[in-house]
Amino acid sequence: MISVQDLKKFPKMTRWFDPRLLSKLLRQVIVGGMFGQYADRRLMMAALDTVSDQELQSRADVAADMGADPDGAIWFDYVSDLGDGFDGTYAVAYQLAQDTLTVDGQTLPRGSLLIMGGDEVYPTSSREEYNARLREPYALAFPNRPGSQHPPVFMVPGNHDWYDGLTSFFAMFCRKKATGLGNWRTRQRRSYFAIQLKPDWWVWAIDIALTEDMDQPQADYFVAIGNHSHDRFEQSSYSILSLRLCQIGFINHVFNKFGLVH
Length: 262
Hints:
Blueprint: H1 4-7, H2 19-38, H3 41-47, H4 53-60, E1 77-79, H5 86-97, E2 100-103, E3 106-109, E4 114-116, H6 127-141, E5 152-155, H7 167-173, E6 180-181, E7 184-186, E8 193-198, E9 201-205, H8 216-228, H9 230-235, E10 240-242, H10 248-257
Parallel strand pairs: 1-4, 4-5, 5-7, 9-10
Antiparallel strand pairs: 2-3, 6-7, 8-9
């Protein structure tokens, strides 16, 4: 049980019009952009994760986690722009944690996995801020259940996650050992990912950093996924979500390469 005194330790909403904060953010945008050009963390991730295309495909297959409902539908949850003050973050996390939600008379189950679409922390990223603004509220909303199934969570960073050069995001969420967000668990090794929900459903999530540019190893990753899954794409219908829609041209390029219809 959380007391009133406990609530006082959690962060308040970001004061976006505070001149001191705006000045700090401007400096971090400049520094982050500079380091993004000369010390791109995405290149380091790829260099530390030299595995076969078959291994990449194996990681992408999360079909075993996607239990179908009585109608054969699968469900996943999506949230983004989430790591601000405690009240708002916890309120959204609490809804995500419920076994079911009733919306307009329809009962919706909790998703078998959770996707976070960027800006997992505000205003700037650090290990301390991720713990206070993301992990603690989500742990309170959906506490760890030892011995139970841990739904996977996949994340793509936004610009606020990049303001420390993606150092904290990389260290906490892109590693072999899973990081817990309450009862959810991370699985990804890079800041971008492809996951196969079922034979004819995919999610592709792209990281364009602060420069709105895709690095070559990331492009190679998605081409490798496409190459390995080419036959399955041809033999069935498919759907791909790009969480960063400004890179939809790259998705079209890959589809054209394989002669697929988008």
